[in-house]
User: Fold this.
Amino acid sequence: MIRIAIAGAAGRMGRVLIEAVAQHPETRLGAALERPGAAALGTDAGVLAGLEPAGVRVAGDIGEVVDEFDVLIDFTAPPATIAHARVCADHGKAMVIGTTGFDAAQSAELDALAAHIPRCQASNFSTGVNLCFRLLELAAQVIGSESDIEIHEAHHRHKVDAPSGTALSMGEVVAAALGRDLRQVAVHGRQGQTGARSREEIGFSSVRGGDIVGDHTVMFAADGERIEITHKASSRMAFARGAVRAAVWLHGRAPGAYDMRDVLALRS
Ligand code: NAD
Assistant:
């Protein structure tokens, strides 16, 4: 059995991840982590997730539990993920990273740490979204240069970053297929006298509200026709199962930076 640690155990994703680890035939929960001072510290992680007791108490310091797991699954916040990645790199522990919203310096540090350990990082761990990445690549190659491309996403009221990491990944896939640099062509949230759009720009818009788990649409609007590729997540279990599948795939692999397209063999 592969021993999994869940960081952010009391969070929206953390609780579902504990359940997904319990359901997978090749994994068991080895450790659970929360931020120092969190109300969940000391609680049984299974009970926290609404399951039978797992015999694993939620810990507040990764150093206390580093010998208890083989792969850490981290869905927390950028500073916490970076701190965990440093410890995992020191101890040769594989890491699945679902946290989004890293700045350029944080992303560079994570990439440097991936030289020491196998790491799978993805802005979205669902199978459907990763399939959409392939469909988007094809759509961009066939109709992208004659279309105006707009990316629209919607998430629950608690989400703290915008646009979503998944929307940015979709933009990167489309931009790469068209030979564009997303940093040069991305236009976020238009307002006021914006002037006409250019053909090259890729527009992003975000909605926040209620309990929306995650909707993404990429529109290719050409003259006379329009293609929309849409993914709708209805349960966080779609991300959690993907993250556990990634952890199993990662276990025993050579150090390096992988993503969900490697896990699902979806690279073109
Ligand atoms: P959340 O706020 O419900 O949960 C985050 C948890 O992390 C909280 O319980 C918090 O206390 C805990 N935490 C913070 N600092 C910590 C530390 N130092 N050590 C241990 N735990 C710590 O948020 P969420 O909705 O579960 O999302 C978490 C992250 O995952 C966000 O960045 C979100 O964008 C991302 N996310 C990614 C995917 C994906 O498929 N890649 C899917 C959903 C969410």
